[in-house]
C-alpha cells in the first residue's frame, strides 16, 4: 500500500487547494471583466452570490460563543451563514426555524477547509487559530477575517502564528491587546483592528446564574469539583488514583469531571479510575454536556491550566486550586514574549497551587482556599482585566460585524 505521512499529506492538500483557489479566482475575475465589457464600460457589481457574514466553528463546543451572536443577528434581520465542522453541532437544529441564520455542516477536517479556502464572502468570523498557517488558507474572495476568543486569558497561548493572518481581533481584556500589539511589532506585521467586546458566553452564563434555581439537590457540606484538562500535563494523568484517594479522605462530596477529550484520547486511564472509584453518595463522575449545574453546585474547583478555571471564578466568583504543570512556551506565540503569560501570572493569586508534596495536606489546603478573603480580591482584579465590557459582548460584536460589512460593501461597490 502507498503510504503518505501526515506532513506530506498536508502539503499536498495545501497545493491542491491552492490550485483550485487560483482557478476559481481566475474564473470569477474573468466573469467580472466580461460583465464590465457588456455593460459598456460601467462598473458591474461584484458577484451577487457573495455572502455577507460567515461564522466558522471547527467544533460544536464553541456554539456557546456563537449562539448569542446568531440570536442577535436573527433579531436584527441580518443574514448570516454558520458553517460548522461538527455533524452534531446544536446549531444545525437551531437553524431549522430561523429566517436569517443559515446553519450548515460543511464536513470535517480537510473537507471543511477545502470549502473555506474558496469561500466568497465579505466577512468570516471564527474562534479557530492558525488561519493561513495550516490547511485553512485565506480565500482571495473573502474581504475580512475576524477572530473572536472562546475563553478569557491569553491570546499568546495559541500555537505560533495563531492570529497573525486575521484582519481584526475581538478580545476581552487589555492584557490580550498588549500581547497582540507586541507580537505584531516583533514580526513586522501590519496592525490589526482590535476591539474589546468582552465574552458572549460569559455574559449568558452570568444572566443564567442570576435567575438560576438548581435542579439538583445540593449535597450537605463542601462539594469539591475536579475539572482537569487532558494530556500528559493534566491532573488525572499526573496524579491519577493518588489524587482521588486524597480527595476521598477529605470527607467532602467529590465530583470528577474529566475533559471530554479524555474519554477518547485517555479512555484506558479513565476506565481504570472509574472502576477503582465507583460512584456513591459522596463521589460522582460528571459528563453533562452543559457544565452549568455542576459549576454552580461546587464550592471550590481543582484544575490545572484548563480554561474552565476562568469560567468558574469569573462568573461564579468561587475559589480555585490549580496544578502548575511546568508550562513550556516553546510551541506557542508566548515564546516570543519576555513576560509571563497573564494567566500564569494571576493563578498564584487566585488560588493555592497543588505540588507533588500535596499528600496529607489536601483537606487543609481546600479549607484555607475557601476561607481566605485575599483570593476574592484577586478574582475581582481578574474580572476587571480579563473580562471587560461585561454584559455588552453580543451587542458590540454584532455592531462591529454589521458596521464592517457596510464599510466593505460601500468600498467594493463604489
Your description of this structure?
By secondary structure, the chain is of the alpha/beta class. It has two domains: 41-199 and 391-412, Rossmann fold (3-Layer(aba) Sandwich), CATH 3.40.50.11720; 208-386, Rossmann fold, CATH 3.40.50.2000. 43% of the residues lie in helices and 14% in strands. It has 15 helices and 13 strands. Strand 1, helix 2 and strand 2 (80-84) form a beta-alpha-beta unit.
Task: Give the SSE layout.
Blueprint: H1 6-38, E1 51-57, H2 63-76, E2 80-84, H3 90-94, E3 101-105, H4 110-116, E4 121-126, E5 142-148, E6 168-171, H5 174-186, E7 193-196, H6 200-210, E8 223-226, H7 235-249, E9 253-256, H8 262-265, H9 267-276, E10 283-285, H10 292-297, E11 300-303, H11 308-315, E12 320-322, H12 342-350, E13 351-353, H13 362-371, H14 373-386, H15 393-412
Parallel strand pairs: 1-2, 1-4, 2-3, 4-5, 5-6, 6-7, 8-9, 8-11, 9-10, 11-12, 12-13
The end-to-end span amounts to: 56 Å
Number of strand segments: 13
* CATH architectural arrangement of the largest domain: 3-Layer(aba) Sandwich
CATH superfamily of the largest domain: 3-Deoxy-D-manno-octulosonic-acid transferase, N-terminal domain
Question: Quick one: biggest sheet?
Answer: 7 strands, parallel
